[in-house]
Amino acid sequence: MDVKSAFLNGILKEEIYVEQPEGFVVEGKEDKVYRLHKALYGLKQAPRAWYSRIDDYLLGLNFEKSLSESTLYVKQHSGDILVVSLYVDDLLITGSSTKLIDDFKQDMMQAFEMTDLGLVTYFLGMEIKPEKDEVFICQNKYAKEILKKFGMENCKAMNTPMNQKEKLRKDDGAEKVDESYFRSIIGCLMYLTATRPDILYAVSVLSRFMHCPSEVHLKAAKRVVRYIKGTINYGVKFHRSRNMELFGYSDSDWGGSLDDMKSTSGYCFSLGSRMFSWCSKKQDTVAQSTAQAEFVAATAAVNQALWLREILVDLHMEPRKSTEVFVDNQAAIAISHNPVFHGKTKHFNIKLFFLREVQKDGAITLVYCKTEEEVADIFKKPLPVSKFELLRQKLGV
């Protein structure tokens, strides 16, 4: 559902005055101003005023607001559940009861001027294609727009987004290129990663060179676009599953960034059938060993796992057991269980040791997996074609 002129529904708490608009000047009171009672587009308070209005309204309908995601609302009624996700003036609605959904739509239409867009097929640039017992989510239309925007509709397709031997650095001696053009490509590709985790690592690495990019960086960026050309119809497919247990994978390289020797962390999480949450990011500190790099990566993954568990609780899908995070480094797992500082680990930032606490509490369990079974390997380095395609399949792409 879409709220028409949503910001005009916001009620202002501040005293705000405006000049009398042309055509509405009161004769004899030309030196007077109007005091605003409701928000207008252009006011910096307008977005907050609208959110406060819709938030109060939904809470008044006995919705519970998620403590972990402030735009997620959940309502239980007679054993059924209704879920509303708010994105500015767009509402994504789902639930276990058609009647509950229809009643909510009627309530919204009475309170606000609304447009019922029907069964969701397109949301925030993502195409949603429901089929029997599965849902396919992609950005095919957007991917085609990227090819057209950068004049690469007829380019030669590539089978991986990044050359396995590619080692990018800031000062590569190559000629510099237009920053705006390079940033435009990377910005478009970053938005595409919402449904294309297979390009996430390459895009994450390239985003480090937004300032003073070179011909080498531009060539690498265009290779990602060429890969998109050959996989234009790819997306993520979710199947109906009885197993709704949350689990994830965490991995890291060691000193992969040639400019500062920092490592790259990667993780992904699945709930039942396919991966739905993923990340590839350069670490904030320089790891002094592979174990430390993996430990830092596992910490980031556990933070995400805890947040996802809280979301599941808000959706009344509380995890029945500890969430397993698979790591392919036994030393990192051993460190997370060891309550004693040693010479080789005392330089770790103490805040990272919360891993021991969450495992002790039973919320998270770090589990060893073989390197060849590590799905998050696709988020830390460029891979050969065979392994890349295998992990891409495991991601559900």
From TrEMBL:
CDD domains: RNase_HI_RT_Ty1
Organism domain of life: Eukaryota
InterPro entries: DNA/RNA_pol_sf (IPR043502), RVT_2 (IPR013103)
Residue ranges occupied by any Reverse transcriptase Ty1/copia-type domain in the UniProt entry: 1-163
Listed SUPFAM superfamilies: DNA/RNA polymerases
UniProt protein name: Retrovirus-related pol polyprotein from transposon tnt 1-94
Annotated source species: Nicotiana attenuata (Coyote tobacco)
Gene: POLX_38
